[in-house]
Amino acid sequence: MEVRRTVPVKLDVTDSDAALLHDTIDQFRDAANYVVRHARDDDGYVITSKRRLHDRTYEDVREATDLHANLVQAARSRAAEALKSVVAKWKRGKKASLPRFTSPFLEYDQRSATFNDDHASLSTVGGRITAEYVLPGENHDTPHSQYLLSEDYETTGATLHYREPAGEFYLHVRTKADVDAPEPPENGTVLGVDLGVKNIAVTSTGVFWSGDELNHWHREYEKRRASMQQKGTRSAHEAMKRVGETETGRFEQLFHRVANGIVREAVEGGCSHIAFEDLTGIRDRMPGAKRLHEWAFRRLYEYVAYRAKERGVAVKQVDPQYTSQRCSRTGCGFTHPDNRPSQDSFCCQKCGYKVHADYNAAKNVGFKILRSLHKSSDGDAPVGVRINTGTLNTSGFTTAPDSVRVGVHGESPAL
Ligand SMILES: [Zn+2]
Fold first, then answer.
1. What is the count of structural domains for the chain?
2. What CATH number does residue 364 fall under?
3. Which tens digit of pLDDT belongs to each residue from 388-415?
4. Which ranges of 40-145 does DSSP label H, i.e. alpha helix?
């Protein structure tokens, strides 16, 4: 199975090299737009074949620009792809105008650039320049260490982007690897995940990821935004935009960390499925959730889905109704609003089961998907929900796991 990953890397370049990159981006954009302008044949039909577009434009673009031959070809390919999607729209009876390239980017391949562990050598209209990577510190969970610096992943090319207003160049480096697709475990089990404001994620195995970091940063940034907004100057406006970008970057790193942890928990527990509650309308049904949280849950879900796939684990969303009110204790299942005396605690009014509310919900999320998979089963449905004392099956029996979790007692984390 081929796995492809794109890793964004900030570049450190001198002012004169930055000027060269700007010129190169401008000429690349001109080249792509030139190809589009010359894409109509004598009968007025739009040509989308790369070969034919090449024959019509290559010599002219080489003549008119200082671009490396491979950048000329990359501009033509980019134009051809954009033309193809416009023609496809026309064929579906939709209106669309011919593409026009305006955003600051360009495409490098292995002939117009060389990619190293900590820097890239990039072709520009003024010859090759060296651009150092600005890499995060030693951390095994960053995409840089996982893909960019990995022996298993091969770099195939990159897109150079100029980000305004920060005025920074980023390389989105494309990598690929051939990995053995792991077989999903036989008699697989489900890992349930509950999302929340106080705890950003809790698994049915009882692992908690606190939302403190997210909520703290959010408050800090809001404060800084408010004070900068009061100043109201142009530079304050620019500073606000920068704060927004720093915030996004920090959060993305947090989501990567949590997502990796969830996937690790699923793999170590031999799970074939990870179950989340349906994200549609999550902000409305979750007390205290802000727009930030809704965005966070979506990103987190995307990261988990992305990472789980390469481990052979399926990720699904499930209707969240009653997952917070239902008793998840084996053989009980009593569902009532009074089971939830406070935000954090669950206490079953029928059997007296006392447990952290988020952990109870995570088990129910897993249990729900287990039942829905059994209904549509072709015989391969997972048999249980992975909890921290074993497996909970559809008949409500808990069986001891054959894993390290044997002997772990008291499935309730501290209330
Ligand atoms: Zn109960």
1. 2
2. 3.30.420
3. 655 555 444 444 332 222 222 223 333 3
4. 50-64, 69-91, 143
Both tokens of 283, joined, read 């902000």
Rounded to the nearest angstrom, the distance between the alpha carbon of 372 and the centre of ligand 1 is: 22
**pLDDT tens for residues 178-196?**
776 555 555 568 999 999 9
Interval between CA 251 and ligand 1 midpoint (Å): 37
Radius of gyration over alpha carbons of the chain, in Å?
26
How many A from CA of 357 to the centre of ligand 1?
Answer: 13
- Asked if pLDDT for residue 375 goes beyond 90, the answer is no
Give the domain-ending residue among 148, 178, 208.
178
Q: Are residues 217 and 320 in the same domain?
A: yes
Residues 164 and 268 in one domain: no
* Interval between CA 349 and ligand 1 midpoint (Å): 7
> Which residues have a Cβ under 8 Å from the Cβ of 409 and sit 6 or more positions away?
389
Answer whether residue 59 is part of any domain: yes
* Ligand 1 midpoint to CA 366 (Å): 17
Q: Give a yes or no: residue 328 inside a domain.
A: yes
Output the pLDDT for position 398: 45
Percentage of the chain exceeding pLDDT 70: 81
Of 252 and 406, which is predicted with more confidence? 252
Cα-to-centroid distance, 336 and ligand 1 (Å):
10
Please calculate the CA angle 346-351-355 and round it to the nearest 5 degrees.
Answer: 25
354 Cα–ligand 1 center, Å: 9
How many Å lie between the centroid of ligand 1 and the Cα of residue 347? 8
Average pLDDT taken over every residue of the chain: 83
> What average pLDDT score do residues 203-216 get?
87
Residues 196 and 174 in one domain: no
Of the chain, the percentage scoring pLDDT greater than 90 comes to 47
Answer positive or negative: Cα dihedral of 107, 110, 114, 115: positive
Q: Is the CB of residue 311 less than 8 Å from the CB of residue 271?
A: no
Are 306 and 242 members of one domain? yes
Domain limit, last residue, from 137, 156, 178: 178
Residues 33 and 128 in one domain: yes
**Angstrom distance (rounded) from CA 166 to CA 81:** 29
Q: What is the pTM of this model?
A: 0.57
In a domain, residue 405? The reply is no
User: What is the residue-wise DSSP string for 144-183?
Assistant: IIIIIS-SS-EEEEEEEEEETTTTEEEEEEEEEEE-PPPP
Same domain, 131 and 247: no
Give the pLDDT band (50/70/90) at residue 11.
Answer: very high
pLDDT(139) > 60: no
All residues with CB under 5 Å from ion ligand 1: 327, 329, 332, 334, 348, 350-351, 353
Residue 335 CA, ligand 1 centroid: distance in Å? 8
Residues 227 and 306 in one domain: yes
Distance 346 CA to ligand 1 centre (A): 10
Tell me the CA–centroid distance for residue 402 and ligand 1, in Å.
26
Domain that holds residue 342: 189-399
Do residues 169 and 208 share a domain?
A: no
